[in-house]
Write a structure and sequence with these properties.
Layout (H helix, E strand, L loop, with lengths): L1 H25 L12 E7 L7 E14 L1 E7 L5 E8 L8 E9 L2 E8 L6 E14 L5 E3 L1 E2 L12 E6 L9 E2 L2 E3 L7 E7 L5 E2 L4 E8 L4 E8 L4 E8 L3 E4 L5 E11 L8 E10 L9 E7 L5 E2 L4 E8 L4 E8 L4 E8 L3 E4 L5 E11 L8 E10 L9 E7 L5 E2 L4 E8 L4 E8 L4 E8 L3 E4 L5 E11 L8 E10 L9 E7 L5 E2 L4 E8 L4 E8 L4 E8 L3 E4 L5 E11 L8 E10 L9 E7 L10 E9 L4 E8 L4 E8 L3 E5 L4 E11 L8 E9 L1
Parallel strand pairs: 1-11, 9-10, 14-20, 22-28, 30-36, 38-44
Antiparallel strand pairs: 1-2, 2-7, 3-6, 3-10, 4-7, 5-6, 8-12, 13-15, 15-18, 16-17, 16-19, 19-20, 21-23, 23-26, 24-25, 24-27, 27-28, 29-31, 31-34, 32-33, 32-35, 35-36, 37-39, 39-42, 40-41, 40-43, 43-44, 45-46, 46-49, 47-48, 47-50, 50-51
Length: about 675
């Protein structure tokens, strides 16, 4: 019997629910102050920032016998994304049915009714909870009606109808609610000016502010003249202000910004110093001096390539970048103060990259430009790694502190090598020149000591700290004793003149003095002088003349630390011919002494050889002491040798002779016996 009664009650409740829904839809509730003084209000739970999810609470206070009702909410889908609409906390643990609970076409609808109790709820609480996501900055005014007229986003956008258990409409008062500043707070991110400081009084100077956040941003401009602040433009939506100062001085310009719905004096600000002068001297126009790139061409498509411009002149330079792809020019970065542009090409091809530059105050399209060709490819073959092959210095160690010393590195491999220089002073390493394409570094040491100089090298496209390195020790001293100047003492040749054109002829210089001698070779062909080998430490030069003629060969020599063109020189005439008649071989005809044997030990004895044949004869002398042979005078053009024997004995004296152009150890020889007692 009990079970049957409960079943009947549920059926009755369901019928009442549908009846209530019909009644609510047909009732027009007039907004009045009822005896109970019921009042409908709205509140927001959560922070109203873009991307946040908040709860819009529909609240009621001073209500009696609330049994059912409906809430309809029309909203701007670009501002909000309503996710749900549910009954609120005022119903507590009572059973509530919601035959309508839907979100469709920018409208949220809720119909609710109590079941299973005789009288409705009373007191204060939340009727409905609308859960929504903030999509963008804006403002929503919640305005309530009880009428069945169409809802409007910018008018009555919430319809709330309430009934009691007697199916009678409940009157209530309501208040509007504005959900404003739905975006992030306003923040001034930049304050820029179209003309760099200083400017002449009377100039027209425009300041431009940039900001983030807020729904609609208002801007206000202030100027401080050194004595006080003055508002020069009140809040409005324009983010620019143009100033025409009438007096010179040091000013501060500030911009205030706030959201249109903000009640504060400002939400954010930014300021800059600005100098106004009576006159400005003439400024040279901007001129682009360099356009460099961090990776040498070619590069693979998709690479990140940074171009850097350098300029002179102007007050503040602005840079604009263009690229020509073979079909047309495209501006890839408009004018601003940054002198760099990073490019990520997506297609292979032959490109031209151009930078335009102009002064910030220039009205021209450009003041100057510079361009470079750049090749982008689909792929690049393997490149050998960079390897440092030499580290040279222009002045040999030691050098006096304060000297200017230049180190030069040489390398192989890679596409484009970068060089970095380091110095170790005995305590620690210090980088003295960072990576760039220059392979030289000039050092001016201020302290004496034993140093180590190192060069690092790597390919321009390498991600490593270095690909290769080379080091040298270098000594710096407080002072150096006086060094005699370099003097060329001899200039010799390995083949006597004349020689046939095409011959390989080696000249050898000898010098005295200096710390380290450098040698430079010149040849005069009868018409003019030509430097055939620049200064280096090698004292030899090999010449392969292609024409016959009478030449003059000269060697210049100087100390490695000398600033002069030369310290000393020596020259010789040399004849080159088309052909040379056959020359008879050298034959030693005789060897004689100026004193007949025997002679006492210590006596100077002069031996003289005579030879025939050859072009120029060279002579070499040997002595056998009974045990072994010893060369006592090497080959040269002199045919005499003076001997001072220090021991008694029976000796053999031999002379070797050969032509100056002979490659043999000797062409002929002759021997004589000689006794010392």
């Amino acid at each position: 019997m009990k079970f049957k009664l409960l079943n009947n009650l549920k059926k009755i409740s369901l019928m009442l629910c549908f009846a209530m829904l019909f009644q609510i839809a047909s009732i027009n509730v007039v907004k009045t102050h009822a005896a109970e003084n019921a009042k409908l209000t709205y509140s927001i739970k959560g922070e109203t920032k873009i991307g946040n999810i908040v709860d819009i609470l529909v609240n009621i206070s001073n209500i009696s016998n609330l049994y059912g009702g409906s809430v309809d909410f029309l909203y701007d889908k670009s501002l909000l994304e309503v996710q749900s609409i549910k009954t609120g906390s005022i119903f507590g643990s009572e059973k509530v049915q919601t035959p309508v609970e839907k979100i469709e076409n920018g409208q949220a609808n809720l119909v609710f009714t109590l079941t299973g109790i005789k009288d409705g709820v009373k007191g204060n609480g939340t009727i409905a909870v609308i859960k929504a996501k903030i999509l963008k900055a804006g403002a929503i005014n919640l305005k309530t009606t009880t009428k069945n007229d169409d809802l409007k986003v910018n008018g009555n956008n919430v319809r709330v109808k309430l009934v009691n258990s007697n199916e009678t409409a409940i009157a209530y008062a309501s208040e509007e609610k504005s959900i404003s500043s739905l975006g992030n707070p306003v923040k001034v991110t930049e304050l820029n000016v179209n003309k760099s400081t200083p400017q002449v009084k009377g100039s027209s100077i425009t300041f431009t502010a940039k900001s983030s956040g807020g729904s609609t941003v208002l801007y206000q401009f202030w100027i401080f003249d050194g004595n006080s602040w003055k508002m020069v433009r009140d809040y409005n939506k324009s983010n620019t202000f143009t100033w025409n100062p009438s007096k010179s001085g040091n000013y501060k310009v500030a911009v205030y910004a706030k959201d249109i719905n903000s009640n504060k004096a400002l939400d954010s600000s930014k300021a800059m110093n600005y100098n106004i002068v009576d006159s400005i001297g003439k400024v040279d126009p901007v001129k682009v001096t360099e356009l460099n790139v961090n990776k040498s061409a070619p590069q693979v498509k998709g690479s990140s390539i940074t171009f850097t411009a350098k300029s002179s002149g102007g007050s503040t330079a602005l840079y604009q970048f263009w690229i020509f792809d073979g079909n047309g020019w495209k501006m890839v970065r408009d004018y601003n103060r940054s002198n760099t542009f990073t490019w990520n090409p997506s297609k292979s091809g032959n490109y031209k990259v151009t930078v335009y530059a102009k002064d910030i105050n220039s009205n021209k399209a450009l003041d100057s430009s510079k361009a470079m060709n750049y090749n982008i490819v689909d792929s690049i073959g393997k490149v050998d790694p960079v390897k440092v092959t030499e580290l040279n210095v222009n002045k040999s160690a030691p050098q006096v502190k304060g000297s200017s010393i230049t180190f030069t590195a040489k390398s192989s491999g890679g596409s484009t090598a970068l060089y970095q220089f380091w110095i170790f002073d005995g305590n620690g390493w210090k980088m003295v020149r960072d990576y760039n394409r220059s392979n030289t570094f000039t050092w001016n040491p201020s302290k004496s000591g034993n140093y180590k100089v190192t060069v690092y090298a790597k390919d321009i496209n390498s991600n490593k700290a270095l690909d290769s390195s080379k080091a040298m020790n270098y000594n710096i001293v407080d002072s150096i004793g006086k060094v005699d100047p370099v003097k060329v003492t001899e200039l010799n040749v390995n083949k006597s003149a004349p020689q046939v054109k095409g011959s390989s002829i080696t000249f050898t210089a000898k010098s005295s003095g200096g710390s380290t001698a450098l040698y430079q070779f010149w040849i005069f062909d009868g018409n003019g002088w030509k430097m055939v080998r620049d200064y280096n430490k090698s004292n030899t030069f090999t010449w392969n003349p292609s024409k016959s003629g009478n030449y003059k060969v000269t060697v210049y020599a100087k100390d490695i630390n000398s600033n002069k063109a030369l310290d000393s020189s020596k020259a010789m005439n040399y004849n080159i011919v088309d052909s040379i008649a056959k020359v008879d071989p050298v034959v030693v005809n005789s060897i004689t002494s100026d004193k007949s044997a025997p002679q006492a030990k210590g006596t100077p004895i002069k031996f003289t050889a005579k030879a025939s044949g050859g072009s120029t004869v060279l002579y070499q002398f040997w002595i056998f002491d009974g045990s072994s042979w010893k060369m006592v005078r090497d080959y040269d053009k002199s045919n005499t040798f003076t001997w001072n024997s220090s021991k008694n004995g029976n000796y053999r004296v031999s002379v070797y002779a050969k032509d100056i152009n002979s490659n043999k150890a000797l062409d002929s020889s002759k021997v004589m016996n000689y006794t010392i007692n």
